[in-house]
What does this fold into?
Amino acid sequence: MKPKKKIVLAYSGGLDTSIILKWLQENYNAEVIAYTADIGQKINKKKIIKNSKVLGVKKVIIENLKDIFVKEYIYPMLRGHALYEGTYLLGTSIARPLIAKRQIAIAKKYKAYAVSHGSTGKGNDQVRFELGYHYFASKIKVIAPWRIWKLNSRTDLIKYAKKNKIAIPKNKRGTPPFSVDDNLFHTSTEGNILENPKNRAPEYIYQRTISPEKASNKGLYLTIGFKNGDPVSVNGKKMSPGNLLQKLNIFAGKNGIGRVDLVENRFIGIKSRGVYETPGGTLLIAAHRAIETVTLDKETMHKKDEIMPKYAKLIYNGYWYSKARLKLQKIVDLKRNKVNGSIKLKLYKGNITIVSRKTKSNAYSMKKVSFEENKTFNKLNVERFINFHKKKLHK
It folds into this structure.
């Protein structure tokens, strides 16, 4: 008997991907390999294995990618201070390239002819996944059920699940639920009452931050240490990338830091309203900018700020592996070896205050900035500097 062809599915263990798993089996007469990347999301490994086995899956793969995710994806992005449309810290965007890369690696290992994902036909993630697939295996077949199946409503999905005895969580039975994505870097919440931008986001949707009003009346002080542009310690204690970010998530979340309510312009042309929580990442981007102010020269800092919007847009649009993003990353990292030291922060009711900056770098000269008279700065040069720029006004 000829063995069945294989498909590697990005599988969360939830209702939607369970339906997709069954649908793939029915429509492609294929063996489905359920692949889950553990990048710090809320994950129930027993549930994932149980749900997939019930649906006839022989191979379930769950990989712990938390440290790789932080070190090789989040940290490079944070060095670029990437903010899409000036607000979004790109928590979902940065996760998809890694999942796509590992999915293709699994597909090659088990000689699968296709990969599949559960992204909807209106979202950005379908683009991010598929650009990643293409980069690592340009000829592999990609199956995107939401773009091709005839299950056009939540009612259709529920009927299909009941027919195939797929467990339906209570919150999936009635009103369409919120769409939630989470990983070690962030949590995003979309849909439901958030679709109307007039509606205030209810407090109960927040999962990893408390409201600033309910945060402690006593500020929390902490120190983040940096080496070669990346955070390496919290309060003097060295930590792995994953543990460091998790620790900062807890500190920031308890102090109401990291909430953003925004309307973004999706890559495919639709506006979308979402609520994002990125507590640890919000601390890191503030601390990283602070350490660069005392370690990098003006031209390097300004060049990074100049390219940031384009850099963030490339990540948002799924171009993490593109030559264009890699070219900008070289600019971002040009002098990262100089970014060493520590930043002390005060966290208080949703606010971050820079308390102190410590570094052995000589980029900041106390002698030059001192208001006391000194010979290290020639004030006569300032007149020539001004006259030069007066001439430039007329060019």
Summary: Residues 314 and 325 are 6 Å apart (CA to CA). The chain has a mean pLDDT of 93.
